[in-house]
Amino acid sequence: MIGHELHRGVAENYRRFGLREARGRSPLYEALTLGVADDPSLQAFLDELPPGKRQPNLLLATVRFLAGVQPDYAAFRDVVLDRRDEVAATMLARRTQTNEPARCATLLPALAQIEGPLALLEVGASAGLCLYPDRYGYRFPPTEVVLPGEPMLTCEVRGPAPLPTVPPTVVWRAGIDLNPLDVADPDDLRWLHCLIWPGEEGRAERLDAAAAVARADPPRIVRGDLVDDLPALAAEAPPDATLVVVHSAVLAYVPAERRAAFAEVVARLGAVWLGNESTTVLADLPTPPPTDLPAPPPGPTPSLLVRDGHRPLAWVDGHGTWLEWID
Fold this sequence. Notes:
Elements: H1 10-22, H2 27-37, H3 40-47, H4 56-67, H5 73-82, H6 84-93, H7 103-112, E1 118-123, E2 137-139, E3 146-147, E4 152-154, E5 156-158, E6 170-177, H8 186-194, H9 203-216, E7 220-223, H10 230-234, E8 242-248, H11 256-269, E9 272-277, H12 279-282, E10 303-307, E11 311-316, E12 322-325
Parallel strand pairs: 1-6, 1-8, 2-4, 5-12, 6-7, 8-9
Antiparallel strand pairs: 2-3, 9-10, 10-11, 11-12
């Protein structure tokens, strides 16, 4: 990966991913990435790629894209080494662009606190499936709060989250991405499916349902950089709406100095800024969140939902299955 992970080797990155990200979520991906962490041949292959193209998610999705889900490490290893040119070419051409619509459930309480109507601008939008928080349905156990819509997103709530009883009013939505995906393109949709982790039930069906929403009302997603091209897109938002810049699991792929530049650009826009990121990358922002946060719950490493780069709102699951409100 980029950012802090540039300072770690391939073995450490893959072991870290297996133990902190995949464990408890995808037993197969835990086994595969721990296998890479102990395999000099796979590490040598990955070392031949640019640093930003050695990511575990990218390799896992590439093998699945080319050869389907492999049952064990031996089969996975054979695909990489026997088809190394195809694997390398795909990893160089593609990006990790997980577009999990369930992340909207973890953003919804924060969006509900913002005076509307809203102009929603997502950075690192992929195919734009997180640009429709007003269209999806929500169920927040153990509360009784249910909002109608499809797909129905279920998110366990811990703590006194300000759950809305009506969805936010979004009057404008747009996204920016270095390589926008189109769910109407079969290859792009298949790539999004390949980014889903085996063992996580319901994600494929949720992806297809959200893709149907996007196909019926295609989002405006421009190809561009989150620093250089953000102001021009933000200028298109209606002036009578509250501009909200959002992103989820994006800043880990951005060098530290560009994270700081991005924060400065957003500040100049005067937008409400909601970021759903790891505490490691948030620490690189000019005004980072405080370090004396309540401890996150046990399990796979969560993300921190912050407002305006420094105000912590909630610990959240990276794939949107739960949130623990702390604000």
